[in-house]
Amino acid sequence: xxxxxxxxxxxxxxxxxxxxxxxxxxxxxxxxxxxxxxxxxxxxxxxxxxxxxxxxxxxxxxxxxxxxxxxxxxxxxxxxxxxxxxxxxxxxxxxxxxxxxxxxxxxxxxxxxxx
Amino acid sequence: xxxxxxxxxxxxxxxxxxxxxxxxxxxxxxxxxxxxxxxxxxxxxxxxxxxxxxxxxxxxxxxxxxxxxxxxxxxxxxxxxxxxxxxxxxxxxxxxxxxxxxxxxxxxxxx
Lengths: 115, 111
Prior knowledge:
The structure holds 2 protein chains of 2 kinds. Chain A is an all-beta fold. In chain A, 0% of the residues lie in helices and 50% in strands. Chain A has strands at residues 5-7, 10-13, 19-24, 31-37, 43-50, 53-57, 65-68, 75-79, 88-95, 105-106, 110-114. Chain B has no helices and 11 strands.
């Protein structure tokens, strides 16, 4: 069964460093999402992406964050200068269609630890 | 005020018990999702519904759009059902359907 994959599973970085989290969505999916979950808290929406552009972003998704679909398979989240409060589990999700009738499929997550 | 409220936050049950988890929301939605999060962190979609009721195995999800309320039921619970169950609502348009998540219900089923 097709699945969303994410790499790395765990990333440790120093404050101020840039990190890139990678996702490979399911191949025929067109809509892509990043969510994050700080330890012990609920999952929060970061950004959605369709047709090679951001379709919606949250207040969390400030200028330090960017997303890209550099080729036909990868979807990346870049944090330019990490802060301690960026430590969280980051989930990528994808769906075939972006509208109300579609299930989002989640990757296993990347745990980001900022020291 | 949270846009998605779940209750209870924690739930323990004996194997075989019937379990109900409730979800209320305060925003207009495209659909309501029930998801399961395993101890390792992975998230799996269980149901997506915009009206009525859906059933999959021992899991049943219902939604009342007028009351902005949904329930997830587990019949004949089993220790392998132990996980965090999350209610999320889809709020979107033609090119996005971001999910707003509840805080989750941690379920432990004991043999």
